[in-house]
Amino acid sequence: MNFQDWDKIVFTKKPVNKTNKDRSILQNTKSQNESSQKMNKVDNETFTQKKLTLAFRKDLQKARLLSKISQKDLATKLNVKTQVITSYENGTCLTPTNGFITKLEKELKCKLPRLK
After folding, report:
1. CA 35 to the chain's CA centroid
2. Residue 8 has what pLDDT?
3. Which CA distances in Å does 15 have to 12, 19, 20, 23, 28?
């Protein structure tokens, strides 16, 4: 057992200078105040999210039914959950991206209205 080192090692903390500690606390509170002010600006802004139109929902459902594909089959072909297709047809979700609409069009072999 000549290869093992059995000497004790003691770890100690460096002494903390109170003035440096007070400065760091002040800097932290300043940065927290600034970040909270930025968050308040974001909270005061209003964002509008486009919802699905009735025409898109009906066209999607008609195209799926004309293709004789169930929601589950369409979801598996597009690699998404069944709930996604259901929510698009019910209008309970936010608008899909144009890329996703393109995937739907290719799978259903029809044109769907684009969302503006």
Report:
1. 22
2. 79
3. 9, 12, 11, 16, 21
Residue 46: C-alpha distances to residues 28, 40, 43, 89 (Å): 29, 12, 8, 27
The radius of gyration computed from the CA coordinates of the chain, to the nearest angstrom, equals 29
Largest CA distance in the chain: 82
Tell me what pLDDT residue 68 has.
93
> Which residue did the predictor score with more confidence, 57 or 46?
57
Confidence grade of residue 18 (pLDDT, cut at 50, 70, 90): low
How far is the C-alpha of 14 from the C-alpha of 82, rounded, in Å?
58
Tokens, residue 62:
């008609």
Half-sphere exposure of 19 (CA within 13 A, CB side): 0
CA distance 98 to 106: 12
3-state SS class at 51: strand
| 112 CB neighbour count, 10 Å cutoff | 17
